[in-house]
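Renewal narrative, Specific Aim 1. Our central claim is that a sequence can be written position by position from structural information alone. The example that follows is taken directly from our test logs and has not been curated for this report. It begins with the structure tokens describing the chain, in the order in which they were read.
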């Protein structure tokens, strides 16, 4: 697959899907052409100052709260968690997938992987007070 094809797939899978935190935010697909996957690249491409706190976490850790079905889930809840599992699986097809959390309280999250010389991923925001 090409970077555009994966970005288009992520756009389809994330349509109308909100990542829950203290506020719910959409997942926005992006492509960064000819970029190297480093914390510095994430800060630069996200237009954040170089002293912004940045933390890397595993893809599975990030998605665990939204991909785990609970006993009390209704059918609609199970459908949403399945959509998140499908989205996680699509991202996992990229090389060297990493999740970066930038900032504190209002945290920008970049879920990024490589395909050839390009980076493809999703951006969202989580609120943690």
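The sequence written for that structure reads:
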């Amino acid at each position: 697959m090409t970077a555009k094809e994966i970005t288009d797939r992520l756009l389809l899978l994330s349509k109308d899907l909100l990542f829950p935190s203290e506020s719910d935010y959409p997942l926005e697909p992006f492509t960064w052409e000819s970029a190297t996957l480093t914390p510095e690249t994430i800060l630069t491409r996200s237009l954040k100052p170089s002293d912004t706190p940045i933390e890397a976490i595993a893809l599975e850790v990030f998605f665990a709260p939204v991909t785990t079905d609970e006993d009390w889930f209704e059918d609609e809840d199970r459908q949403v968690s399945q959509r998140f599992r499908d989205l996680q699986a699509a991202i996992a097809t990229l090389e060297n997938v990493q999740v970066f959390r930038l900032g504190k309280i209002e945290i920008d999250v970049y879920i990024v992987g490589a395909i050839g010389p390009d980076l493809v991923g999703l951006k969202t925001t989580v609120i943690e007070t």
